[in-house]
Task: structure prediction
Amino acid sequence: MPDIQNYTLNFGPQHPAAHGVLRMVLELDGEVVMRADPHIGLLHRATEKLAETKTWVQSVPYMDRLDYMSMMCNEHAYCMAIERLLAIEVPIRAQYIRVMFDEVTRILNHLLWIGAHGLDVGAMTMVLYAFREREDLVDCYEAVSGARMHAAYYRPGGVYRDLPDSMPQYRESKWKSATEVKKINEVRSGSLLDFLGDFVSRFPKILDEYETLLTDNRIWKQRLVDVGIVSPERAMQLGFTGPMLRGSGIAWDLRKKQSYEVYDRLDFDIPVGVTGDCYDRYLVRVEEMRQSNRIIKQCIDWLRVNPGPVITDNYKVASPPRANMKSNMEELIHHFKLCTEGIHVPEGQVYSAVEHPKGEFGIYAISDGANKPYRLKIRSPGYVHLSAMNELTRGHMIADVVTMVGTIDIVFGEIDR
Amino acid sequence: MMVDVMQQLLPGFLIPYFNGLMQLGQDTFGSAWANILTLVWTVIKVMLIIAPLLLIVAYVTFWERKIIGWMQVRIGPNRVGPWGLIQPIADGLKLMLKEVVIPSGADRSVFLLAPVFAFAPALAAWAVIPFNATLVLANVNASLLYVMAMTSIGVYGIMLAGWASNSKYAFLGGMRSAAQLISYEVAMGLALVVVLMVSNSLNLGEIVKGQGQGRFAEMGLGFLSWNWLSLLPMFVVYLVSCVAETNRAPFDMAEGESEIVGFHVDYSGMAFAVFSLAEYSAMILCSTLTSLLFLGGWLSPVGFLPDSIFWLFAKISAIIFFFFWIRATFPRYRYDQIMRLGWKVFIPVCLIWVVVVGFWMMSPWNIWK
Result:
């Protein structure tokens, strides 16, 4: 009698639930997964190496393209690393703006996650609801940076420019009548802060709607509860961070534990799970969206009443104001030096990490004093989480593999870098 | 039969020609002519059912996209023709013009036969479906059994497709659906046992007529005398089993587009289209059966409105809408959970209810006399 062999299934990279280019070789016993072997590298773009050949500021847009679902958070870690090497202070208003947009980004990321996770588990309506809300937030991105995804808004020393006083408006067209345009432009009549304020006041209700669709749904619970349990000890051993770690019950959040920018002045809670299964991670992320909403609200209130500079006045780091540049030799030279050589970062090394929507996103940079990094290492949370795939899926069924891909919140841009 | 109908329907000036044709046939074929006429007449009746059915199937897909679109704050198809109404025709045309790719490792004949196996039974079952008290292609006494037999064959199409594709994903899909259909067939069959116990017949027409009798029907509240109320647990089991039988969400793990992509992952063009035609005609068939068995078929819900085929269509539409609705709302079950629901919940409930109804019928409170 021939040996009975396990069934080997190549899952991805062309698979609707592979979230990009995930390729896994699954060893199956019937429908039960015996071993999952994730293969990476299909989206490798050598970001770290490329950064060595670009000036410090030129690499900011590369950061957007790492985790292309939480763009500004990636920039944040990178800019923070440079600022630490330079030992410069970021203006307080810029810090608030950064925190606000970090949280906007967190909501953006989690909205995409809840949609994709829902779609993987079969609740296909979620993704469309989530994208309806994302639309408003990418509008905010567009208003500050001109781009809806890859913003390149944070700069070493602050942010590119202050928040705009007006929002982009819809225009009348063949598809949108005047009355319709007037209606959707109503919330866009004020400043960015007004628009975001309106969103923030609506958002908790929308989250309640999502939760009525999923949280107590029997099928949703059957699919998520007790699936992919990670014990707190094991989660730490595996190097989990972010919602993956908090889902296992460990209240580790860099915003609280290693507070950066102005997080220590803001009031928010860290949700933690109990059992460490997919359902807990789902609840943690939904609650995180509510907390982000709270933070944004506080930032809006502060930003409304506290005008000020949004980028450092150290002209060795950031360009001087254009008006001065036109009339002043000193400023002109600064501008010329910045545009031709870029920033010179003093010799040294630094690790700076932010609480990214997916976990701890860190930048380790070594500078040899030149205008380019000597070495840049990116610590991406998704890479670490993906390495636990085998452990998470072993003994579960194929359908659960898809749930697990969803619960890890895989975005290949940051895994392959 | 055919001669009478034709003489009524044809315009006056054609009748002499028609009679001449009949005479010619009689002269040529002699006594066999009557049999030939019956055959031709049956084929015409079959066409009269299948042609509208296929059209309805096309527009059910359209309405599914439209309704789910509205539920998902989208517009749905609206480009082809006014309000997108030509969309299904355009889809059909596109699928017909596409190449049917046959994978090199596939078993060619079985690969091409599988869609037929899926589609043919879903159409054949319509033969015994009554549309009103008189309108039925074949008024068979065991029509319920016939329908059960026919719908069970449908699973072969899916299994063979999964097998013949020679693809691991398709194979998993085929295996899943075989297991699923067998489990839910049992629950469905037991639910039907209860129905035929109370209506004392296997004839679908008789079953519908039986629902129009009773105290509530006399009071003019016909909808309360239908089987759905007196056999409520069976109605629920049957309806859910229907969703599972037709591989619709949330039981669509044979297709499971985000897990294994489906048993028809290697099919393209018309071969693929036939599978989706089969799925939708099976869905309409299941809705029709539910309306006939539990919702009083063509019977009017209230006394002051006449019974008509319109009621049947309204009930079928409502059930199809229910199918769409749950598809837009629910996540998908996992394979083992579907099995558990079928074997550990539905079948015990059915078995218990068979006994309960048995005692009920023997007791003095029997309401089905």
Notes: The mean pLDDT of chain B is 84. Chain B touches chain A through 29 residues (CB under 8 Å). The CA atoms of residues 245 and 314 of chain B lie 22 Å apart.
